[in-house]
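COURSE: Structural Biology Practicum
ASSIGNMENT: Worksheet 4, Part C
STUDENT ID: 0417
INSTRUCTIONS: Below are two proteins. For each, the amino acid sequence is given first, followed by its structure token string. Answer the questions at the end about the second protein only.

PROTEIN I
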Amino acid sequence: MIRRARAVGDERGQATFSLILVLVVVAIAVVLLQRTAWTAESINEKADNIASTGQGINTATAAVLKLGRTNDLAASILETAKPLEGQLNEVIRLAKSIDGLATSINGTAGAINGTARGINGTAATILNTARHINDGVAQININLDTTLALAAEIKADTGGILGEAQRINFLADSIDSGLLDG
């Protein structure tokens, strides 16, 4: 009888340890999610900076006008990154979409640079602005890579949490049905 009481106590200790472990993993996942949200907010701030810098460029350049769309997508990433469950795949999809758009903007910035050479007295100003846009796009790409990596880490952590929760549930069922009597 004492041996059985000790075994039940050990099993409860193991279940408590597993629960604490799951809580620690959840806390880590929340921290990683906050880092993702911060990174997305940083991307949004960079996109706002790019939009304000790009306003001085010739209005006929359609690529620069897409900066508003980039800002909208960055804001969408920030909003999407807030909830943890079920939203991580959407964050990754939106981040890849922004990455493709940023690459497109980076390519058209080179075309803007070529066009700017033909403009008379304002060529130096346009070239300087195009370089600022290139720097901003490169920073967006860096931030997106970080966001994608963090999102993948969070997704992996949630898979681990799910596995631990299923294991705890299995152990609890086994304890209830008496399968783990010592």
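PROTEIN II
(use this one for the questions)
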Amino acid sequence: MVMPMDQRKRVFSVSELTGQIKGILEDGFPSVVVEGEISNCRPASSGHLYFSLKDKSSMIQAVMFRYRTRGLGFEPADGMLVRATGSVTVYAARGNYQILVEGLERAGEGDLLAMLEERKRRLAAEGLFDQGRKRDLPRFPSRVAVITSPTGAAIRDIINVVKRRNPGLGIVILPAAVQGEGAARELLAQVERANILNLGEVIIIGRGGGSIEDLLPFSDEALVRAVAASRIPVISAVGHEIDWALTDFAADLRAPTPSAAAELVSESRAVAIAEIAQLASELESGIMARIERARSALGRFEPSNVEARFMRLLLPASRRFDEAKEDLARGIEAGLAESRRRLELAGRGLEASSPEAVLARGYAVVRTRTGQAVRDAAGLERGQDVDIRFARGSASARIEETGL
């Protein structure tokens, strides 16, 4: 826009110039749709939402008033790709132009769903999700491999459920990132490691709930193929009941939550022993009923032949009864002995891998004063105070020197 000659010579006040710019921008852009990444997201106590939209080379301020934010189906956050609908306005007090946002939606999610549906159809056509390929889980596994984040809520839920239902079940934790760049590669590597090293009789792979982008690593094609090809049965426990990932379809079993997956692999041994006792009681009752029927039949015999006939009828049944009881007792005893052996082995393994056992072998845990565990000396600074926990007791120290 070329300014008229008389405008070039005119001296404007700041308010006058800002007013003219405001009019030009607001009249020129009454309705726009802008796609960008949210940055500097600041929800105000008033309920209004202030943020910036940016791409690789530019940034624009944005504001969304409280009555507009109430209808959002998600919580805006930094780094989120969105599509904003609104108008361009000028905040005259500061001379800033910004977008007055009337509507906000996540961008790219529809494309992601379309991509996942296409991948799902293609892999299903190859037979990777066929029900006939799926295997039954062992009823009483002695060890389960869990592939998830070592710091997430999912692993805590799994451990708590197993500890409550079957403390003797061994848990091997295979840590992996569960979202973000590189997560799919880490998950794939742990599935392969569990199979190569035979780290469990069942694999649980999963995480807590999240957005479609958060769960995307569990729909990675290479990971889905590895889950389908796993020699060890796999339970996929991704998100909450309404969430889904392609590993759910490739796994031998899909659990709605990580806690539900733990329930599936930790059937109570007390319940199983009660079932055995019930079966034994039913068997004994059946044998005794047959004996009673035999006794009734003996009443029709002549007195002189009663004893001989009775013995001929009773002895085979009695022998079968004794043999059945002995076989049952031997079977129960063998099962209990095997269970005790597995419980003992699992207990030793769990004890050897517990944090207390690691500390007892001479290791220590170093934490900053904020409670963060120190895993890399590069994160420490000279003169920084740290706390050190040993197997017995703790101490404080100050960093004098660091090195790699």
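ANSWER KEY EXCERPT:
Q1: The CA atoms of residues 22 and 90 lie 5 Å apart.
Q2: DSSP finds twelve helices and 13 strands in the chain.
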